[in-house]
Amino acid sequence: MNIRDHEHVTTPQDGNTQKPQPAWREQFPIDWQQDEFRSRRNFTKMLGLTSLAFVAGQIWIGALSIFRKSRAKPERMDLGLVDELAIGTAKRFEYPSQGHPCLLVRLGKERFVAFGQKCTHLSCPVIPKPEQGKFLCPCHHGSFDIQTGRPLAGPPRRPLPRVILEMKDGRIFANGFSEGEA
Amino acid sequence: MKSVFTLHQRSTIVVSILAIVLSVVIMQLWLLTATMEAFLGGDDSIVWPAALASLGLFGLNFGLLHFYMRKLVDDKS
């Protein structure tokens, strides 16, 4: 008898028919198909499929990576006059498009930084605290270094995306994002 | 077909194979989460090497499971 047939026939595991089974088995019947389904062999098959699913997940990340590289660089955007922003203050803007909030912070006379405003933990908007030298996420009390965007405390593990800034003729421009850590 | 393994040997082999397969699957899970973490952090350099490594681990799993299904399960018939 082929062991594979077990899955399709409801028979006790000892291979006998229902008749020679003890009385308690008749009174407390077991669904043998379900029992077989939970067998070691099916567990092994499930592990194989899980392994294949992980490979599919890796390929999916690879495809996302290719898609990200193929996207065009965001266009340069005018953020206004340099003198509009006082030292130690911040300005909110949306870049590269609506729905992508960013923060421009003036740290010194000639020193500006800009980062995406979404916390890298769960996308809550971070609040600039230039006097404390950090961005604060009020949701889970995460914080980021205001100069580099690197996480300092709390649940976030990845840095805030840094906006590349350019200054020309007294105006300040956003010109894309820098990859990886700032 | 008569099995070349005794019942006791077969049981030992099956448990060993399951332990290895389970370890490999856990390694693949770790690889997937580490790759996703790096990707979201802007690091694309490890994405494809990690995918190849995961594929290699799946190949190992497939070979072990193939051996298990063909040599051990069919032998029982």
Explain the overall architecture:
The complex is a heterodimer of chains A (182) and B (77). With 182 residues, chain A is an alpha+beta fold. Chain A is 23% helix and 27% strand. Chain A starts with 22 loop residues before the first helix and ends with a strand. In chain B, helix 1 runs antiparallel to helix 2. Chain B is built from two helices and no strands. Chain B has 77 residues and is mostly helical. The chains are: A alpha+beta (182), B mainly alpha (77). The A-B interface holds A 1-4, 40-41, 43-45, 47-48, 50-52, 54-55, 57-59, 61-62, 64-65, 68-69, 120, 157-159, 161, 179-181 and B 14, 17-18, 21-22, 24-25, 28-29, 31-32, 35-37, 39-44, 47-48, 50-51, 54-55, 57-58, 61-62, 65, 68-69, 73-74, 76-77.
What brief labels describe this structure?
heterodimer, A: about 180 residues, 3-stranded antiparallel β-sheet, 3 helices, 10 strands, about 25% strand, elongated, disordered N terminus, B: about 80 residues, mainly alpha, about 80% helix, about 0% strand
